TrEMBL record:
Residue ranges of domain FAD-binding PCMH-type in the record: 1-173
GO molecular-function term, one example from the UniProt record: FAD binding
Protein name as it appears in the record: Glycolate oxidase FAD binding subunit
Species this protein is from: Tranquillimonas rosea
Alphabetical keyword list: FAD, Flavoprotein
One Pfam family of this chain: FAD_binding_4
Top-level lineage group: Bacteria
Length: 373
């Protein structure tokens, strides 16, 4: 394993690589099958800048997300996008890192209100496939000079460069949160309820649905100042009344735990099924659920994100043929990844753009080769 302790060592190791490199942060998100010598960024650790008044934090790529969250919590702040922790779902150890979070564009339930990880990234430093150090963005939101490599690197999973540092926008942690719960809705009614809630002026920051039949529950989260929550809770409860009895829970630690379960998809953990991550239009989620009636499902983002636990080897993309969207095979045996492909095939024009970007940033094809086409 290669384990650089600073950016210069990282660049030297990439320049000197004689073959493929498998980029790894905390080792918690091993999506797909890659080959090559492991290049770990875990040694690139530490918060290099934190200015609470400017809502800005800069950390090296190997910095544990938990370390950053603890520093933010001490100042009453948080990462806006609620990054997912894949360890329960994937059965992995280690610790999620800031670089891995950015490379995977890891985003949780609050994405519907605060945007994805990429929307909070304001700067990156990375080493491309030639060993060159590249910096893009800045440490304050007003810096928008140059090409937007910040968003390009978010979700690239190390195929365009190895992140060495990330700068993020942070936000204050709200004083209160409350969860509204509806029980027993089918997928169609649940999506209708979540769409109505998200279309309301009551600033819903979480909208999820899980379970089937009488055990099904539809969850809506409100966050904000104590003085505002009571009014928004009452108004949203009235809006949801046509969908059934509304249970209201004033959340503390229990509410945090509930939304961590949604964020981390822990209900689909510790099982033998394959797990897929499916992005669709919320209005298409009920049809997707109908076609996947044998699967265990979790709807997030108001139905725009579906997590599906299916029988091993099932070709979910074939089952959802004709439903607009894309599906990523997150957890499966290596042979299933090889047979079905981890990521959905790209349309020819998009594939050409992706190929051109990889040729530009990694001309030797050594960074996580084959992971994303």
């Amino acid at each position: 394993m290669l384990r650089p302790e600073n950016e210069d060592e990282l660049a030297e190791m990439v320049r000197g690589a004689a073959g493929p490199l498998r980029i790894e942060g905390g080792g918690t998100r091993p999506v797909g099958v890659t080959t090559g010598e492991v290049l770990s960024t875990a040694g690139l650790s530490g918060i290099t800048l934190y200015e609470p008044g400017a809502l800005t934090l800069v950390a090296r790529a190997g910095t544990p997300v938990a370390e950053v969250e603890a520093a933010l919590a001490a100042e009453g702040q948080r990462l806006p996008f609620e990054p997912m922790d894949h360890r329960a779902l994937m059965g992995t150890g280690g610790a999620p890192t800031m670089g891995g979070m950015a490379a995977a564009n890891a985003s949780g339930p609050r994405r519907i209100q605060a945007g994805a990880c990429r929307d909070s990234l304001i700067g990156v430093r990375f080493v491309d496939g030639t060993g060159a150090v590249v910096k893009n963005g800045g440490r304050v939101m007003k810096n928008v000079t140059g090409y937007d490599l910040v968003k390009l690197m978010a979700g690239a999973r190390g195929t365009l460069g190895v992140l060495s540092e990330v700068a993020v926008k942070v936000l204050p942690r709200p004083a209160a949160q409350v969860t509204l719960r509806l029980r027993g809705l089918d997928a169609g009614r649940a999506v209708q309820a979540m769409s109505a809630a998200l279309g309301s002026p009551y600033e819903v920051t979480g909208a999820a649905h899980r379970g089937q039949g009488a055990a099904a529950e539809t969850l809506l989260r409100l966050e904000g100042f104590e003085s505002q929550i009571a009014h928004r809770r009452a108004a949203l409860s009235e809006l949801m009344a046509p969908y059934g009895a509304v249970e209201v829970e004033d959340d503390g630690a229990a509410g945090d735990a509930l939304w961590r379960e949604i964020r981390d998809v822990s209900g689909l953990a510790a099982a033998e099924e394959d797990v897929w991550r499916v992005s669709v239009r919320p209005s298409d989620a009920p049809e997707a659920a109908r076609r996947l009636e044998a699967a265990r499902l979790l709807f997030d983002w108001g139905g725009g994100l579906i997590w599906a636990a299916t029988d091993p080897g099932l070709d979910l993309r074939a089952a959802l043929a004709g439903v607009a969207g894309h599906a990523t095979l997150v957890r499966a045996a290596p042979e299933t990844h090889a047979a079905l492909g981890t990521f959905a095939p790209e349309a020819p024009p998009l594939a050409a753009i992706s190929h051109g970007l990889r040729a530009r940033f990694d001309p030797r094809g050594i960074l996580n080769p084959g992971l994303m086409g």
